[in-house]
Amino acid sequence: MKLGSFLAGVAVGGLCVGATAVLRPFQVQEVMATYVIDGRDQRRLAGIADHVFRGRVVAKQGQTMDDIPVTLWTVEVLGDYKGDLPATVTVGQMGGYEPVSNTLRLAEDDALLTIGQEYVLAVKRADGHYLIATPHGDVAVEPGTTVDAHWKRMVAEQIPFTVPGP
After folding, report:
1. What phi, psi does 112 have (nearest 5°)?
2. Which CATH number fits the domain that encloses residue 100?
3. pTM (2 d.p.)
């Protein structure tokens, strides 16, 4: 190869040594965890949560990256069942998109929240936001359904979480 051809190639195409951009196929990965309660029992879910409330997701704020991503949402509080929250709160949900691996990582099969959708959320205080008690702490509220009486009863009948002693 002549030096002139090499320099022309570098000037036009750039010089790339040992680097290749590869777009990995998109995948969804479920992360399995061990939980201290069975969140399918909504009385136990209410018992472990600091707050239980009905809210509407108004915006996605972004996400943090730890072992598993945590997606942050702005939620308008429509009704408190346990605790007293301000009109809007930041809620963290285990799960999110990892661009390097082109992977959506979810806690079990807990789909990410949807902007505009109402949910009943059971949350714990964590690092400047409220973390959803995944995977059962985000229950979608279907339009036209009434959930207030049910969740007030679940909070009234909550089973408090206690750490077993030795």
Report:
1. -65, 150
2. 2.40.50.120
3. 0.78
